[in-house]
Specification:
The protein is an all-alpha fold. The chain has ten helices and two strands, in the order H-H-H-H-E-H-H-E-H-H-H-H. The protein has a two-stranded parallel ribbon with strand order 1-2.
Length: about 220
């Protein structure tokens, strides 16, 4: 009797998330500790499109939408409290960006008034409020919020992923054009999560690595 074992090819969601975490860490190290190494910032452009794609996948397959959004919002709020008291900053981190993305996706799926209402709120936070409140800005702005939304609703995904990366590049220019380099990696995604459940790793790694980098910047300043 022969047993036919099919080996899954391509990259799993876990592998892509780990790649994004490495790229994000390189980006923040390059920004805060080693600005003399610009390649770290270029490598960091991989992170946002990969994470945005995984957020869209999370919205599609999560079993508990309320828990998924609550986890993101809760950690975003915690990070913002730390930012405010540690640095007096009202800059909104990427967890806030993705919280808005998730809310926007599910608001439009709910139909009715929810979609237009949440869209108006997102536009106010991303476009209007930064002009009214000095220092306030949503990380990656409106184009960053829309990237997971485009990936979630758009078909084919590759086309709308490219459109989202283009919006980011047009909004921020410079090294953000390197965000397109994430597309070939995402096209290798095989649609599986991977062997282990590391979904929560990013949520805790994000504030932890920022804290370490911030402490190192104080030590070596």
């Amino acid at each position: 009797m022969s047993i036919n074992i099919q080996k899954q090819t391509g990259l799993t969601g876990n592998q892509l998330k780990i790649l994004a975490m490495i790229a994000m860490t390189c980006d923040h190290v390059g920004l805060q500790l080693l600005p003399q190494l610009p390649w770290l910032r270029l490598l960091g452009r991989l992170a946002m499109p990969i994470y945005a794609y995984m957020i869209a996948e999370g919205c599609r397959y999560t079993r508990d939408r309320k828990k998924y959004l609550l986890r993101m919002v809760s950690l975003a709020a915690l990070c913002q409290i730390v930012y405010f008291f540690a640095m007096g900053s009202v800059y909104m981190c990427i967890l806030v960006t993705f919280s808005l993305s998730i809310g926007l996706i599910w608001a439009w799926e709910a139909r009715g008034i929810a979609g237009p209402a949440v869209t108006a709120a997102v536009f106010f936070l991303c476009v209007v409020l930064p002009d009214l409140l000095p220092g306030f800005e949503i990380d990656y702005g409106l184009s960053g919020v829309l990237l997971p939304v485009l990936i979630y609703f758009g078909k084919p995904k590759a086309v709308f992923l490219a459109i989202g990366c283009l919006l980011l590049a047009l909004s921020y220019g410079g090294i953000q054009w390197w965000g397109f380099s994430a597309i070939p990696l995402l096209m290798l995604y095989n649609g599986t999560k991977g062997k282990y459940n590391i979904g929560k790793l990013f949520y805790w790694y994000y504030p932890a690595h920022l804290a370490v980098i911030y402490l190192l910047s104080l030590i070596f300043a």
